[in-house]
Write a structure and sequence with these properties.
By secondary structure, this protein is mainly α. It has four helices and four strands.
Length: 129
């Protein structure tokens, strides 16, 4: 979500990508004396972030199931604050694929879906074989 102070996407990380992975689409760009970082394909712009946060704010859950998620959304600063561990589990396991399915290309949506299924599988009470 590209939250200031929370992202690990800094100049040092971009230089590392340039050195070892040769990904031209996200290398740092030198414009005069400034250094610019192009946005990665998985970073949402402000309008899409607002859509996600408004969607989260409008969610209604049954009693006892992640009731706090609409309350933790801050539409002014575009952040989620005070997320408890259970809310985080619900967000990672069920809401990530739903929230981002129309905002990203298919490759990124597939990766988010696999991550969501991974979290659901490791948090499952009984391992399936």
């Amino acid at each position: 979500m590209d939250i200031k102070g929370k992202t690990k996407d800094n100049i040092k990380a971009r230089m590392y990508i340039t050195l070892f992975y040769h990904r031209k689409s996200i290398e740092v760009v030198y414009v005069g004396s400034r250094v610019a970082k192009p946005k990665a394909s998985f970073v949402l712009d402000k309008n899409n972030q607002l859509l996600v946060y408004q969607w989260l704010k409008s969610l209604c859950f049954s009693h006892g199931r992640a009731l706090n998620i609409p309350r933790i959304v801050n539409l002014v600063d575009y952040i989620l604050y005070g997320m408890k561990s259970y809310d985080c589990h619900v967000f990672m396991q069920t809401l990530i694929p739903l929230a981002y399915q129309d905002l990203f290309p298919n490759g990124i949506c597939d990766a988010l879906m696999k991550i969501s299924h991974f979290f659901r599988d490791i948090c499952f009470n009984k391992l399936q074989t």
